[in-house]
């Protein structure tokens, strides 16, 4: 009886865990996504266009690779890596992995990963803003 209860508890927990699902380009994420808006933690601190601190874009390729390019103060920085698209209960995410560290990787953890998600208006947004980084929104 004890083993049956443990088995039922284990199966219940195992089945209740959400699973991320790998996806193909159903959201149309392949191609170039350009930074269109920056925001800070201060209300009404949004900037767009040439007023932003920097200009940047992502280029997502069909083979699971991407390139990120940023131009700031006349200096262009480019880095490439790989990405995986997943869907979970919160929506669709792109998890980007870089081969080495770079100043243009925007995340909360200081590692070589970035997470982007699709907004309600089908733009891409970063998760860096959740830890006092700038909010960055990209449009295809």
Short description:
This protein is mainly beta and 140 residues long.
Folded structure, characterized:
With 140 residues, the chain is mainly beta. The chain has one domain: Calycin beta-barrel core domain (Lipocalin, Beta Barrel). It is 11% helix and 44% strand. It is built from 1 helix and 10 strands; from the N terminus they run αββββββββββ. It has an 8-stranded antiparallel beta barrel with strand order 2-4-5-6-7-8-9-10. The N terminus is likely disordered.
Keywords:
140 residues, mainly beta, Lipocalin, eight-stranded antiparallel beta barrel, 1 helix, 10 strands, 11% helix, 44% strand, disordered N terminus
Kindly report the average pLDDT value.
Answer: 84
Number of strands: 10
CATH names the topology as Lipocalin
Main sheet overview = 8 strands, antiparallel, barrel
What is the count of distinct domains? Answer: 1
Q: What is the rounded Rg?
A: 19 Å
Structural class: mainly beta
Low-confidence stretches: 1-22
Architecture in CATH? Beta Barrel
Task: Please estimate the helix content.
Answer: 10-25%
Report the end-to-end length measured between terminal Cα atoms. Answer: 58 Å
Shape: globular
- Element-level helix/strand string: HEEEEEEEEEE
Note the total helix count: 1
How are strands sequenced across the largest beta sheet? 2-4-5-6-7-8-9-10
CATH class descriptor name: Mainly Beta
